[in-house]
Amino acid sequence: MKGAWLLLAALAQASTARATLGESEASCERVKEALHGTASSTRQDEHYTHQNVNPATMGMNGILGVSLLKQDCGPTCTAVPENGSYYSCAGATCTPTTTTVQLQNPVAALPTDNNGLVFALPDIPDEGAPNATGQLILGVGTRANNQPTGAVALPATSNGTFAAISAAFAAGGAGSLTSFFDSGSALMYFPTVSTLPVCTGDLAMFLCPATTQTMTATVSGSPPSTTSLPLTFKVANPQTLFQGSSATFMAFNDLAGASPASFQNAYLDWGLTFFYGRRIYFGIEGMSSPLGPGPYYGL
After folding, report:
1. 91 and 127 share a domain?
2. Residue 14 and residue 32 in contact, taking contact as beta carbons nearer than 8 Å
3. Distance set, CA 213 to CA 67, 104, 182, 207, 209 (Å)
4. How large is the C-alpha radius of gyration of the chain?
5. Which CATH number is 231's domain given?
6. What single-letter DSSP state applies at residue 218?
7. Are residues 269 and 241 in the same domain?
8. Is residue 157 part of a domain?
9. Helices (DSSP H) in 110-237: which residue ranges?
10. DSSP tally for the chain: helices H, then strands E
11. Residues 129 and 185 in one domain
């Protein structure tokens, strides 16, 4: 399982697509640009190597990731060409561009249960599991199955981020890190430290500690929020995990990778491995719920 995605039952040729989510239908205008073509990617390491099938084979026309935002990236994409999301292409040559037409979050367009969602994954053993089946529940505090009982809201910025500080990263020269929860990232990604060297060879996308490391980072809500939470996670060695009975497993809760160069050692990406055994709430910007106004994450 790699991330949670909302499958679009959409008409790719129409300027207005309809996304069917559970029993509700959302009208998402101007999504057709993202629904054409095929999706194809290959994991970098042998254990994870696979080819994504094309949308037609999957019975859908596109995918949208879980987000706190009502649009792809809001004002940033309308004003900043180097936004990392939109490009203008002539043949094989593509250049960054601004856009006045962005993908919309279909959850926010629903008539009910539209204030956010809950991402719930089961707990799995540290050695991994063959697979994992979780739930993507629409709405926060709108029905019996999405009540945020016991959850604490972590307000986010307009970009969906918050701050994270860890003694381990500080020792390596990284102070407060810009942080976010991202089920679409297969691993957790953060700056490298001496106890977490980068793997080599086919596993070069992972970190390879000599022994499993238990780490803690304190996350803080976006000001003026004073919410602060310590979050603990583990980082194991994939060379050990990908052997024996777990050699064919696809679900792991303790894998991490070094931040890509574009992160410039300034980000902590809480990827899918952190989600196992948790219910994480995503409060959409401008919408209210028992956890307060969005945007926020709830844990």
Report:
1. no
2. yes
3. 29, 39, 22, 11, 7
4. 19
5. 2.40.70
6. E
7. yes
8. yes
9. 167-171
10. 5, 20
11. yes
Q: What is the C-alpha separation between 64 and 56, in angstroms, rounded?
A: 16
- Tokens, residue 110: 């629903």
Give just the sign of the alpha carbon dihedral 181, 186, 191, 196. Answer: positive
Report yes or no on whether pTM surpasses 0.70: yes
DSSP 8-state class, residue 247:
T
Residue carrying structure tokens 């050695």: 127
Helices (H), 182-260: 238-241
Tally of domains in the chain: 2
Whole-angstrom distance, CA of residue 83 vs CA of residue 78: 9
Q: What is the DSSP letter of 168?
A: H
The Cα-based distances of 163 to 46, 196, 225 in angstroms read 34, 22, 11
- In this predicted model, what pLDDT tens digit does every residue of 35-56 receive, in sequence order? 333 333 222 333 333 445 566 7
Same domain, 87 and 225: no
pLDDT of residue 295: 96
Residues with Cβ within 8 Å of 174's Cβ and at least 6 positions away in sequence, in order, are: 191, 265, 266
Check if the beta carbon of residue 107 is closer than 8 Å to that of residue 294. no
Q: Give the residue among 198, 238, 192, 244 at the shortest CA–CA distance from 215.
A: 192
Tell me the two tokens of residue 197. 């060297």
- The two beta strands, 63-65 and 5-7, are antiparallel
For residue 28, list its beta bridge partners. 17
Domain annotation covers residue 32: yes
DSSP state of 62: -
The answer on 155 and 66 residing in a single domain is: no
- What does the mean pLDDT of the chain come to? 81
Which residues form the domain of 83? 5-96
Burial class (CB in 10 A: 0-12, 13-18, 19+), 62: buried
**265-292: pLDDT as tens digits:** 788 999 999 999 999 999 999 999 999 9
